[in-house]
Amino acid sequence: MQSVTYAPLPISDTWRLSPLESAILETVAYADVFDYPLTSLQLHRYLHRVPAEPDEIRRVLPEGNLIPGYLNLRAGFVTLVGREHLVSKRLRGIELAARLYSHAAHYGRLLGGLPFIRMVALTGSLAMGNISGNADFDYFILAENGRVWTCRAFSLLLARVARMQGYSICPNFIISKKQMILPHRNIYTAHELTQMVPLSGFALYRELRRLNSWSDGFLPNSLGPPLNMYSPVSAPDSGRFLQLAQKTGEGFLHTRFGEGLERWEMSRKMRKFARLDSNSSETHFSADWCQGHFDHHGERTLAAFRRRMENLSTFSMGNSDE
Known about the structure:
Number of domains: 2
Shape: elongated
Distance between the termini: 46 Å
Radius of gyration: 21 Å
Strand content: 5-15%
Strand order of the largest sheet: 6-3-4-5-8-7
């Protein structure tokens, strides 16, 4: 798998910005790709490249333009100039996410009780409270070694149950414990890693973050799980009933039948996915990895981010000539 790289443009040279100001502008531009204004606390946590304290961010943000003509502070949210209308959208998204989050957490913990699933984290737009409709519940899942496809099969069975209740579960990224070091070392993957909200398997979540400490170079203030706006950060792992059900299921599947089921499920699904035409680096299928991001979301995000940075740099150079 090839990693998509990104080299930020030297906008600070044009504007003579401090490293912190340059990082703030870059961070707001990245969030703008998702139509997502940032609070000062989020701006601190997801600040690109520059270690800083929350008070340092608050001192830089005035009651007006941070950089004249480029950034605005409105109702406690930082946006690019001309994008202030996103604040009302963000507020609506917070309200909707608050209603959906408990259901996503519930299903995430049910996933954590399925056979061979060792960690579940909520990802995607709901994890950030950035939704505008009936959002999918996106999950990142760590599976026992050699059991990725069994985990996927059980996850999809739960997804059918959730669909009957009006919810959409998307276990779209499942890897085994032996594959916890993520290969795509870029700002997009760093955001995905630091934005995920762990729902079960907290010890493995901490190990995942430790093994991928390279993300600290991109987002040095994003240590530990994100502050959860909707429920306590430390949610309990699966209850006794789920733990018993998980152990019972695993005892039945730690057999030749269970091993054959894993091989059969992997073989038939990989044949199906092979027929789908995709040159994306975000699709990969093996015994220990199931990632079916056929929509090139990460690649499109990085491309949109670079265009924003190029536009900002072009505009700044035009203004400097006036």
